[in-house]
Design brief:
The complex is a heterodimer of chains A (343) and B (299). Chain A is globular, with a radius of gyration of 20 Å. Chain A has 3 domains: 69 residues, no CATH class; 160 residues, no CATH class; 107 residues, Homeodomain-like (Arc Repressor Mutant, subunit A, Orthogonal Bundle), CATH 1.10.10.60. Chain A is of the alpha/beta class and 343 residues long. With 299 residues, chain B is of the alpha+beta class. Chain B has 2 domains: 127 residues, no CATH class; 146 residues, Alpha-Beta Plaits (2-Layer Sandwich), CATH 3.30.70.270. Classes of the chains: A alpha/beta (343), B alpha+beta (299). Chains A and B meet through helix 1, helix 5, helix 9 and helix 10 of A and helix 6, helix 7 and helix 9 of B.
C-alpha cells in the first residue's frame, strides 16, 4: 500500500502552504520569515508542480505560529482553509449536498484536504463525532493543527449551510492561555482535558440539505478529482496503520504483519513510528480505546463483553488496561463524551 | 535599526576617530606598563554604552526635538568618556589645556542636554497619553496590544476587570459586542478587508465611549467595553447605543462595495468573577440570532 510520511513530497504548495503565506501577509507578517531555512521561496512554492513534504509544511506552520503569538493564528488561518481552491476537490466540497457528504469527502480525500491530521467519523448514539488522529503531526504542533482543522470544518459548515451549527468540542489539552479565542471562533460548548480532540453534533444535522448542494455536481467533481489524483498516496503511514488495526481490532496483527501490509520491513516501520513520536503498542492502544467508546455507546456493551470482544482474558484485565491507556475507567470516559458531561 | 541610523553611527565613529587623531598628533604615546586597565575598561565601557543608547533612541523614536536632545546628550557623554579613555594612552604636554577643557565640557554638557531632553519627553508623554485614552487605563502593558486594531487583548481586560472589582466593589459593567456574519466578510472580500472593518469598528466604538471607559478586542470580531462605576441600566443603554451606531455605519470596501454591518450585544455587571461573567456574556451572544437581513443570500 502506497503511503506518505514526514519526508514524502505530497502536499501541493499552491494550496495550503500558499494559503498560509497569504494569511501571514494579511496579518503584516514578513513572508520570508515563514520560509526561513527552507528550500522554497514564495515563487517556487506557488508553482503548480511544487510539492512540499509534511515536514516542510509543519515547519512553515511552526514559523507562522511563532510570528503570531496572539493565540488566534490557527483559528484565523483555519477559517478560510476549506473548501479552499484545490481544483476539483474543492469544487466537490463546495457543492456538497449536506454536512454528511462534506465530512465523507473530507475523510476520503484527507491526504489533500487535511494532510497532517486525519479526520475520523464515529457514530455515538444519536451523535456523530468527528475526531482527529495524527497523520503526519508532531506532538509540539498538535494543538495548533487541531485548532486549525476544527476551525476549518466549523467555518466551512457555517458558510455552506448558511447558519451556525451547534457543534460541541472536546480537546485533549489543558485549558489554554487564550480561552476567549475558542469561545469566539468555535463557541462556548468547549471542554478541555478530554480524551479526544473531537467535535460532535446531533446526527440529524448531517442530513440537512445545504443551499448550494448539487449532487450531480459533486459526482462530476469527484470523478475529475479521481483522475487528477490517480497514483498518489491517499493515506499517511500512521493513518494506514490505524485503519488496518481498526479493521482487525478483534485479532490485532503484530508489528511484522503490519509492516508487511505497508510494504516495508519491521525495522523501517519502527523507525517511521519513532519519527512521529510514537510506537506500535501506543497506536494499537489508541485504536482499542476508540473501539471501546463505540461499543459502550452503540451496543451498550458491559465491560465483560468488551473484554471478550477485544480478546482480553477478563473484564478486570480490560479495565486495568483501559485505565493505563487513558487514565480513566471506561465509564468515566463514556460520561465525558455525553452532552451532559459538558459543563 | 543600524540601517536607519547609519548616518548618525558614522558621525559618531568619525568624531571618535578625530579625537584619536588629535591625541595622536599632539600627545606622546604612553608605554603599555603605565596603562591603567581599570580606567580603560571603565571609561571605554561608558563610552560604548552611551553610544549604544544613543543609537537605540535614534532607531526607536520618530525624529524631532526630543529625540535630538536625548541622542545628542548621550553622544556628548560618549565623547566625553572617550576623551577620558584616550587620556590613558597618550600624555598631553602640561602647557596645553585643550584636553582638560574637552573633558570638563563634554560630559557635563551632555548630561545637561540629556536632562532637558528627558524633561521635554515627559511633556510629550502627557500629550500621547491623551491618544491612549479609552485604549488603556491605570497601567500600561505594551505586549497586550493587538496588531490589527491597536486595542488591548483579553488578558489585559481580565486584569482590568479584577482591578476594577478591587477598586470599586459592586459597581461597574461590561459589554460584549460581536459583529454578525463577520466570517463572510473575510471569505467574500478577503482577510485584508476583514481587518479594515475591524479597525473601522474599533474607531467607531472609541468615538462613542466616555473618557473613563475602556475598549478591548476580546478575540476575533468580538469587542469588550468596560464601563467603570456604571450599573446594569446604564450598561443596557450604552449597549443599545453601540449596537445602533454600528448599524448606522456606512462602511465601504476598498473597491467601493458597501458592507451592511450589524452587531449583537450582551452586558452584565461586574459582581460576578471575571471568568464566569465572560462565559455568561459569551453564551448570551451565541443565543442571539446572527443574520444579516440586508446581506444577499449565498450566491
Amino acid at each position: 500500500m502506497k503511503t506518505y510520511q514526514l519526508n514524502s513530497r505530497c502536499i501541493p504548495g499552491a494550496y495550503q502552504p500558499a494559503m498560509a503565506l497569504e494569511f501571514a501577509r494579511g496579518q503584516d507578517v514578513d513572508v520570508s520569515l515563514l520560509l526561513k531555512g527552507m528550500a522554497w521561496d514564495e515563487h517556487s512554492l506557488r508553482q503548480p508542480e511544487a510539492l512540499l513534504s509534511p515536514a516542510e509544511h509543519l515547519q512553515l506552520l511552526h514559523n507562522l505560529a511563532v510570528a503570531l503569538p496572539g493565540g488566534d493564528g490557527a483559528f484565523l488561518l483555519g477559517q478560510g482553509l476549506l473548501p479552499g481552491h484545490l481544483g476539483a476537490l474543492s469544487h466537490a466540497l463546495l457543492q456538497a449536498t449536506n454536512l454528511g457528504q462534506a465530512l465523507e469527502l473530507l475523510q476520503r480525500y484527507q491526504a489533500w484536504l487535511s494532510p497532517l491530521l486525519a479526520p475520523r467519523l464515529m457514530r455515538l448514539g444519536d451523535e456523530t463525532l468527528l475526531y482527529w488522529t495524527d497523520s503526519c503531526a508532531l506532538p509540539r504542533q498538535r494543538a495548533f493543527l487541531v485548532e486549525m482543522m476544527m476551525a476549518a470544518v466549523t467555518g466551512m459548515a457555517r458558510w455552506l449551510s448558511g447558519q451556525r451549527l451547534p457543534w460541541r468540542y472536546t480537546f485533549n489539552r489543558t485549558r489554554p492561555a487564550h480561552p476567549e479565542q475558542y469561545a469566539v471562533h468555535l463557541g462556548s460548548a468547549v471542554q478541555f482535558n478530554a480524551y479526544l480532540d473531537a467535535m460532535a453534533i446531533d446526527s440529524h444535522w448531517l442530513e440537512q440539505p445545504w443551499p448550494r448542494g448539487n449532487g450531480a455536481g459533486v459526482e462530476m467533481a469527484v470523478a475529475a478529482a479521481e483522475q487528477e489524483l490517480e497514483g498518489q498516496p491517499r493515506r499517511s503511514l500512521l493513518t494506514a496503520l490505524h485503519d488496518h488495526l481498526l479493521a482487525h481490532v478483534r485479532r490485532p496483527p503484530g508489528l511484522e504483519a503490519c509492516a508487511d501490509m505497508l510494504g516495508m520491513s519491521p525495522a523501517t516501520l519502527k523507525r517511521h513510528l519513532a519519527q512521529h513520536g510514537t510506537h506500535f503498542q501506543a497506536e494499537l492502544d489508541q485504536v482499542r480505546i476508540h473501539v471501546t467508546l463505540q461499543l459502550i455507546h452503540n451496543q451498550g456493551y458491559s465491560n465483560e463483553r468488551i473484554a471478550a470482544y477485544l480478546g482480553f482474558h477478563d473484564a478486570n484485565n480490560f479495565r486495568r488496561s483501559f485505565k493505563r491507556w487513558t487514565g480513566l475507567t471506561p465509564s468515566m470516559l463514556r460520561h465525558q463524551l455525553q452532552p451532559d458531561g459538558l459543563d | 535599526m543600524l540601517l536607519t541610523c547609519r548616518r548618525a553611527l558614522m558621525a559618531m565613529t568619525l568624531a571618535a576617530l578625530a579625537f584619536v587623531f588629535l591625541y595622536g598628533s599632539l600627545g606622546v604615546y604612553r608605554p603599555m606598563e603605565q596603562w591603567s586597565w581599570m580606567d580603560i575598561v571603565g571609561e571605554g565601557g561608558t563610552a560604548l554604552m552611551s553610544g549604544f543608547w544613543a543609537i537605540l533612541i535614534l532607531g526607536s523614536r520618530p525624529s524631532g526635538r526630543v529625540t535630538l536632545l536625548l541622542a545628542g546628550g548621550l553622544t556628548a557623554i560618549m565623547l566625553g568618556s572617550w576623551v577620558d579613555c584616550l587620556d590613558e594612552f597618550f600624555v598631553i604636554p602640561k602647557d596645553q589645556f585643550w584636553d582638560n577643557w574637552l573633558e570638563s565640557l563634554l560630559t557635563p554638557g551632555g548630561m545637561l542636554i540629556l536632562t532637558s531632553g528627558l524633561y521635554f519627553w515627559r511633556q510629550e508623554q502627557w500629550s500621547l497619553n491623551e491618544h491612549m485614552q479609552k485604549r488603556e487605563r491605570l497601567f500600561r502593558e505594551h505586549r497586550a496590544f493587538d496588531r490589527v486594531t491597536q486595542l488591548a487583548n483579553a488578558d489585559y481586560l481580565r486584569r482590568q476587570l479584577q482591578l476594577e472589582q478591587e477598586r470599586h466593589p459592586g459597581s461597574g459593567a461590561l459589554i460584549l459586542l460581536d459583529l454578525d456574519q463577520f466570517h463572510r466578510v473575510n471569505r467574500e472580500h478577503g482577510q485584508q478587508e476583514g481587518n479594515r472593518l475591524l479597525q473601522a469598528i474599533a474607531h467607531l466604538l472609541l468615538l462613542n465611549l466616555r473618557p473613563e471607559d475602556l475598549l478591548c478586542r476580546y478575540a476575533g470580531d468580538r469587542y469588550a467595553i468596560l464601563l467603570p462605576e456604571s450599573d446594569l441600566q446604564e450598561a443596557a443603554v450604552w449597549a443599545r447605543h453601540m449596537q445602533q451606531s454600528v448599524a448606522q455605519l456606512a462602511h465601504h470596501t476598498r473597491s467601493g462595495i458597501r458592507l451592511p454591518i450589524t452587531a449583537r450585544v450582551s452586558w452584565g455587571s461586574l459582581e460576578e468573577a471575571p471568568e464566569a461573567l465572560l462565559n455568561r456574556l459569551d453564551q448570551a451572544l451565541e443565543a442571539a440570532p446572527d443574520f444579516l437581513p440586508t446581506h444577499a443570500a449565498l450566491a
